[in-house]
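Below is just one:
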Amino acid sequence: MYRHPLLKKNPASILAISTAWLVFLQLCPQASAHPGHESGAGAATAPPFFLAQAGGPASRTESIPAGDKFRNSVTITTEGDYRIIKANGWPDHAPGAFPRRGNPNTPRPQHYTFRIPLHPQPVATPARRGGWWWGVAVNGVPFEPGTAETWNNNPQSGWRYEAATGFLNLGLDEHNAHVQPNGSYHYHALPTGLVTRLGGDDKKMLLIGWAADGFPIYTSRAFSDATNSLSPLRKMQSSYRLRQGKRPAQENGPGGNYDGRFTQDFEYVKAIGDLDECNGRFGVTAEFPGGTYYYCITAEFPFVPRLWHGTPDSSFSKGDRPPGGRPGGQGGRPPFGGPPRGILDGPP
């Protein structure tokens, strides 16, 4: 098991963690016994599934109304060294109304099969992949941090618009999600409807998904002392910040001041926040009392992390499908020249 050196140096924290874990199991017996929901059942009061490592079942299926037409469906099994998530990608909360301005695509159920390593290992250099889902929420809806929109509709420029900083109207709904041309509903930031369904994160660290490399995903609220589960919760801060000054003058570039409209407008500065360049850290959680590396979805850039701490599984590759939820509904590359659709005038 991957064990961080901080735990070896802090016996008091280990005792506190063990005590808290025993109390958790006594007060929350449902955490180790989650029967599956029948098709069409009402909203669950417990998370859709619990970790197999914590005594939960190897499989669980949710089928919950999330609209007038479709239902959420997600099945989780463990096979060898992998957690297998099969889902239709339809949320377990009511999605926003689509098509809508900025996103004329219609959401449709998908056929996802994600393989998630049960024993993820960190890598020396954080991984980055283009055209991949970054992770998947516990309700089977994938996360995607990036967009397909580039300056002047020119991918070669290297300047890619951000989905959640307010300069580009990509039709995000109230759950920070929108729809790709093929109908796949996906999150670009905190999935607010899912967080509400899971009971919120004001009193506990809330597991909301799994990254493609196998490490867990939480909201931004985590223990103040990463190795002490009895320490108070507080909002984790990203270690990214907006660059100062002007963008470089180049023929294939937007110029102007760094203002947050492009991914390249931000820079990572080690330790100015709580999280590393992958927007994660090592610490204890209720599901991992011995400690684990975990990611946080933050309210500021990068929102959904852009890098993996471990090696992502190839089941998260989207193949030839374009990233983002570009307007148009037909897929393929937008025409070169001129700004992409959805650009907003003035500051956000």
Q: What stands out?
A: The chain has one domain: 5-316. The helical segments are 5-8, 11-27, 192-197. The radius of gyration is 20 Å.
